[in-house]
Write a structure and sequence with these properties.
There is one protein chain. This protein is of the alpha/beta class. It has three domains: about 15-115, Rossmann fold; about 160-275, Tetrapyrrole methylase, N-terminal domain (Cobalt-precorrin-4 Transmethylase, domain 1, 3-Layer(aba) Sandwich), CATH 3.40.1010; about 275-395, Tetrapyrrole methylase, C-terminal domain (Methyltransferase, Cobalt-precorrin-4 Transmethylase, Domain 2, 2-Layer Sandwich), CATH 3.30.950.10. The chain has helices at about 20-35, 45-55, 85-95, 130-150, 175-185, 195-200, 225-235, 255-265, 275-285, 315-320, 335-345, 375-380, and strands spanning about 15-20, 35-40, 60, 75-80, 100, 115-120, 120-125, 160-165, 190, 210, 240-245, 270, 295-300, 325-330, 350-355, 365-370, 385-390.
Length: about 400
């Protein structure tokens, strides 16, 4: 069958979906991405469709289809489990001059829904001659090749500015898709030592790489210098990616960089990342929450001693907690932190996990107790970067979880 491929601009235009099951749910998601004004007609709907209706994102008419429901529609989808109803919808659409996708009978449809994929402003739509599996396979292959660069596509010139990208806890496979796309478009990458280093090896030779690492109590690039660097490159017309480990807004000083850009009139976007505070324990078999065990989780920076006058942590309140405590940047002052927690009421026998180099091939996990954790860390030679988890969740007994493999 010969088709004439076309892309529809449905923003603000009425689209009627008949049916509330699994197929209808999938079609509704795509239509909402196109900003269509979706009206769904069905006596019953899936939980997802119910949620969309409750949120006001679609209009749900909880009744069977009736003649006249397509009035004012630009496009229709017949996706019920009743073939007779789908035929009636398609016939009404034909009489009304409305294109209709009939989910259970492609041959009778006046419109087909292709397998759709998107990458960097490119939309890939594949029709497989009534073979949706084949169409999806071709779509996936094309999108994957676009992403990895084996299918050449002219690079879109990005507007000058800065994007703060959270690279995740270390495994390069844990960066978000949007973060990875930003790296591929970068003119300049300003990275620290906690960012996934394998991603830096994928940068093109034309990309300028700046080492902005901050080693605790050792060599570091001052934050003010990093701010100035981001602003100056952006003002010179470059697309700058500030690549950080974890999430840039979780003890990553990302907001300082955003404020510096704003003060200089430089556009700055944020791409959140997978936070090491939660991902590293998860992959070590330590859930930070668990039903019946922990109903709270608190993340605390331990980069200064509890008795340091610059500390803003209410350690007395933290010591009274009975849920999960996650400590970041705490290895240097771990002995003082453990002593303080016990002094303020946390049991000395509370389970503790220390996870070093989380999500990488060098990951090490040691389980102990609050009373002896500092001694164990010294004996085992554990070092930063490390995540320390305090609480009953550590004693649940799960083994390490296999990390997501590298791309």
């Amino acid at each position: 069958m010969s088709l004439y491929p076309v892309a529809l601009r449905l923003a603000g235009r009425r689209v009627v979906v008949i049916g509330g099951g699994r197929v209808a749910s999938r079609r509704v998601s795509g239509l909402l991405d196109a900003d269509a004004d979706v009206v769904l007609v069905s006596p019953t709907v899936t939980t997802m469709v119910q949620a969309l209706s409750d949120a006001g994102r679609i209009k749900w008419l909880p009744r069977p289809y009736a003649e006249g429901d397509l009035a004012g529609a630009w496009y229709a989808v017949a996706a019920t489990e009743d073939a007779a109803v789908n035929i009636a919808v398609a016939e009404d659409a034909e009489r009304s001059g409305v294109f209709c996708a009939q989910a259970d009978d492609g041959l009778a449809s006046s419109a087909w829904t292709p397998a759709v994929g998107r990458y960097d402003g490119i939309t890939v739509a594949v029709s497989g001659d009534r073979d949706p599996g084949r169409a999806a396979s071709v779509r996936d292959d094309v999108v994957h090749r676009l992403q990895e660069g084996s299918l050449p596509a002219p690079r879109r010139r990005k507007e000058p500015g800065v994007v703060l990208v959270g690279g995740g806890p270390g495994d390069p496979g844990l960066i978000t898709v949007r973060g990875w796309q930003a790296l591929r478009d970068a003119d300049v990458v300003v990275a620290d030592h906690l960012a996934p280093q394998a991603l830096l090896d994928e940068l093109g030779p034309e990309v300028e790489l700046v080492d902005a690492s901050k080693l605790p109590y050792r060599r570091s690039m001052a934050q003010e210098g990093i701010n100035e660097l981001l602003v100056s490159h952006a003002q010179a017309g470059r697309y700058v990616v500030r690549l950080k480990g974890g999430d840039p807004m979780v003890f990553g000083r990302g907001y300082e960089e955003l404020l510096a850009c704003a003060a200089a009139g430089v556009r700055c976007d944020v791409v959140p990342g997978v936070s090491s505070a939660f991902a590293v324990p998860a992959l070590a078999g330590v859930p930070v929450t668990h039903r019946g065990v922990s109903q709270e989780v608190v993340v605390v920076s331990g980069h200064v001693r509890p008795d340091d006058p610059t500390s803003k942590v209410d350690w007395e309140a933290v010591g009274r907690l009975r849920g999960t405590l996650v400590l970041l940047m705490a290895m240097t002052h771990l002995a003082a932190i453990a002593e303080t927690l016990v002094g303020f009421g946390r049991g000395a026998d509370t389970a503790v996990a220390v996870i070093c180099d989380g999500t990488t091939s060098e990951q090490r996990t040691v389980r102990t107790t609050l009373a002896v954790v500092a001694a164990v860390v010294r004996e085992e030679g554990l070092r930063s970067p490390a995540i320390v988890v305090v609480g009953d969740v550590v004693a649940l007994g799960a083994g390490p979880v296999e990390a997501i493999p590298d791309r």
